[in-house]
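Recap from last week: sequence in, structure out.
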Amino acid sequence: MTGTRIVVVGAGIVGCLVARELAARDPHAAIAVLDRDAIGSGASRRSAGLHLPRGATERLRAMTRYSQDYYDALRRERPTLPIHPTPVTVVSATADDRTVGETYLSGAEPVRADRTDLPAVGVPPDVRVWRVSGGHHTAVHELTCALARDPRSRVDFREGVAVTAVQPVGGGVLLRLSTGDTLTADRVVLAPGPWTADPALAPFVAPSGARVKKVVALHVEQCPADTDPAVVFQDDDAFLLPLPERGHWLYSFARTEWDVDPGTVARGLSPEDVDEARAGLRRWAPELLKYDVSGRVFCDAYSPAREPVVDVVDDGGRVVFAGAANGCGYRLAPAIAREAADLLLGVVA
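Predicted structure tokens:
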């Protein structure tokens, strides 16, 4: 790989960790990261940033374990990074110990708890409660910028530079840029987050079947206590995250609006967004309904299998797609970066 020219398209948490991984493995590679906006300004800026030690499939559990170890090591090495250990409580009105426990990692298995583990948000009395270890949360935008700062001495970050065409030619890949310039690389990693329909990238991403879904989280303007846990609502694929450093709760829920455009979706909460969110709060945390709400709106790419896609997407083995993180980009980013680097290094070897 000595002297290999590599371009990473996308400077969110996934793209930046791909660049870090490649730089660590090959000190001689010439690496550039391009983004149409600033570092961490897309889905990473809007991410809830909650790491839960779980996964619905064997691959997702393995990816989660790798990522958890990666973030734990980062936190030990650099305690000033905004990675905050977070107690986690799981509640369900229907599940049993086996159903809840089978998705969590070894060492983080839910342990039966009582209602004293719940914050005072009005969780219904007829639920079962479990305590889970290994959770944390972060401000993903801040963390992405901090992690991108480290390799800047040898990684060329180009913000505000969009890729308008990706053309495999000869033994390399030609990229046309919004500035009018061109860039030639030996290998390219596409980490576009929800911009999978971008005309320059769509021919490579479309075979994955990825679709873009709206992602909404409500901000409930009630300050949680420093000791309040994140509350995972097992039955609804939703959670409440205490953000005492910001002074509010965050309620994340499964918003069912597909094929949205990341260029226009972040125009504020819609009445439908608020109605869906309030319906969940009414069921799980009705005490929070009395507080003012605001929120964050964006989107992410979802794969048919609900697992990230990391694959070679051109006939010459020069372009790798790393994405469709299904709303778990932060949680799985280190593992996605490792898979992308493994694939890229294997192709080049």
